[in-house]
Amino acid sequence: MLNVVELDKNYGKRKILEQVSFQIQRGEVVGLVGENGAGKSTLLTILATITKPTKGAIELNNVEYSKKLDDIRKMIGYVPQEISVWEEFTVEQNMLFFEKLSWKRHTKEECRQLCLDMQLSSWKEKVKDLSGGMMRKLNIAISLLNDPSLILLDEPTVGIDMKSKNEIGKYLVRLAKEQGKIILYTSHDMNEVITFCDRVYAIGQDSFYINLLQSNGVKVEKL
Ligand SMILES: Nc1ncnc2c1ncn2[C@@H]1O[C@H](COP(=O)(O)OP(=O)(O)OP(=O)(O)O)[C@@H](O)[C@H]1O
Ligand SMILES: [Mg+2]
Fold first, then answer.
1. Rounded distance, CA 222 to CA 166, Å?
2. Does residue 34 line the site of ligand 1, with CB under 6 A?
3. Which of 12, 31, 55, 86 is 20 to 30 A removed from 132 (C-alpha atoms)?
4. Are 126 and 88 in contact (CB under 8 A)?
5. Domain residue ranges of the chain, discontinuous segments joined by +
6. For atom 13 of ligand 1, which residue has the closest CA?
């Protein structure tokens, strides 16, 4: 379980997150929505241990972030909003490089299968020759190398075609339901959120997203 308690984040005098508390159980796929600048990426980078909160506590599977950061990092897969892969290298070289950095060992075939699960069949192609959507698929595949129990995805499907988006969404839901992963992801694509998320958190002052999602029968809470 992911347990977030009374989290604050300030940048200088600006309060980005204020008294944010929520819980996500194993097996849940939860969306995080809100307008540009609302603080979605800030929250995900805090959960990914990249940014420190100003205040508050976080626990993942009963391990406290403030006490056992190394253990926490082994349990997290994170897809940043900006694509971060080696563009001069092939898909294969990227996967094998990040496999070495991962806590879990995989054979080359397993690395390749992760890409295929993301609908990415290019293997010998240089990343700089891939489309933006294909690079994103590679980014998602890399985040799963750790076999993480918490998967944080920051707008993972921007630029991905509808068919692949649907297949990736279904795959993430399967990871949650069959393997008990906790999945939290941001998206500006409400169709995707409505289709794949069990429930949604809306961040920021605006009630636009809350109204839109509720009118589509989605369980949504304000953070
Ligand atoms: N390192 C930083 N220093 C100062 N301000 C920052 C920093 N990172 C983010 N901010 C500010 O915090 C606010 C929230 O940014 P964040 O990137 O979390 O929003 P977001 O909801 O992810 O937006 P988007 O939908 O555009 O991705 C913004 O006003 C941003 O300018
Ligand atoms: Mg963002």
1. 26
2. yes
3. 31
4. yes
5. 83-147
6. 37
CA distance 215 to 205: 18
Atom of ligand 1 nearest to the CA of 35: 25
The residue written with tokens 């636009």 in the block is 208
In angstroms, what is the span from residue 153 Cα to ligand 1's centroid? 16
Strands 14-24, 2-11: pairing is antiparallel
Task: Examine the pLDDT at 63 and tell me if it is beyond 90.
Answer: yes
- Pair of tokens at residue 154: 């920051």
Strands 2-11, 182-186: pairing is unpaired
Q: Is any atom of ligand 1 closer than 6 Å to the C-beta of 42?
A: yes
Bridge partners, 153 (sequence order): 79, 185
pLDDT tens for residues 72-122? 999 999 999 888 899 999 999 999 999 999 989 999 999 999 999 988 999
Q: Which of 80, 88, 151 is nearest to 114 (CA)?
A: 151
